[in-house]
Amino acid sequence: MTFSFHVPYAVPTVLLAAALLLKLPTFLRAWRDPEVLATTLLLFWATSALVVIIPVNIKRLNELTGVPNIAAPWAYSFLTASCATGLTMIMRWREAPSPRRRRRIRRIYWTYAGIIAALWVTFVLADAPQERIYDLDTYYASTPWMREHILLYLVAHVASCLTAVYMLWKWFHEVENPWLKTGVVLLQIGFASGLVFDAAKLTAVTARWCGADWDWLSTKAAPPFALTEAALVAVGFIIPQAGPALKRLARDQREYLRLRRLHHALRVLEPAAAATRFGLWIPLDLRLLQRQQRIHDALRLLNPYFDVELYRTVYIQAAHAQTEAKARAIAGAVTVRDAIASYKAGRTRRIPQPPQISIHINEHLSAISTELYRPGALDCIRQRATTTESLNTHA
């Protein structure tokens, strides 16, 4: 056994294990959600199957238990469990909740649980004293009960892959969500790879029955397709759930960073209430919500200091060369900076401020925060606006 031979097993195993670890926090928060539970179980079964079939782990498990080839029923059980979970997840995606769907899902679980039980029964009844790490399926292809053991897992796997490919093919043209469609495509390729794996294995086993030696189909040709299936099926089930979540995370991250300058500028105001402190592990959406709340609280305190005329003048001047949204952002940034300066100096406006200015500012918080990164440009804009206003007044 060489290290390079194990690399093809290690790469998808590490990827699946990483996906499982990333899924665990969601599972701990929402383990009652059937889709979250099914996804986590699928990743666990697939990862476990790949961990067991790594040649060095097969040998370790056999030595640890003292039972030659005990890794076979473990690996085949995990593979069968992942097949059942995959089929039920496709059903959950395709069909609305109903008593019929629940019955079909329950039937699949019971059927595959029976297959797993039969795998262990046939292994116990079989006589397989010679440890086979690479060619167990073909070496024991004609051994009583071991023959049934091998055929049982292969037939169960063929049935699940055929059913999955058929359901996904029928469903493909109905899917509109891009994330879900990507997942469906990956699942189709993954389960099709599983069928190639089964074909290679069954051909090699049949050749043994006929007295021929086509073991290379089982030991060399089939494993890459099994590894491809495991990786693509896992990714295919994860993408429709992780894709939108990652998109929301990226959006929240951009918004959180864009509000940073405005949040920092408003820290000079005393908060209305004691701020809740969040740790480093608090989800980003909660930290974004806290930042937005602090900004809104500070702007309410700044409301008496807003100069409406300054806002209008800057907006009118900026609107000549900018879009409305950009002009609103520039006017808001100039007005907020002016209000903060008035707050520090203790100057308040005697005339009550109309609510429109606060509404405009609250509608463009991110853009205003971005404009605050250009203090020199804002000073020039304010100076031009006040100079223009003074000239118009004198005229």
From TrEMBL:
Pfam families membership: DUF6545
Transmembrane portions of the chain: 6-24, 36-58, 70-90, 110-130, 150-172, 184-205, 225-246
Superkingdom: Bacteria
InterPro entries: DUF6545, MAB_1171c-like
Keywords of the record: Membrane, Transmembrane, Transmembrane helix
The DUF6545 domain, residue ranges: 249-355
Cross-referenced NCBIfam families: MAB_1171c_fam (NF042915)
Name recorded for this polypeptide: DUF6545 domain-containing protein
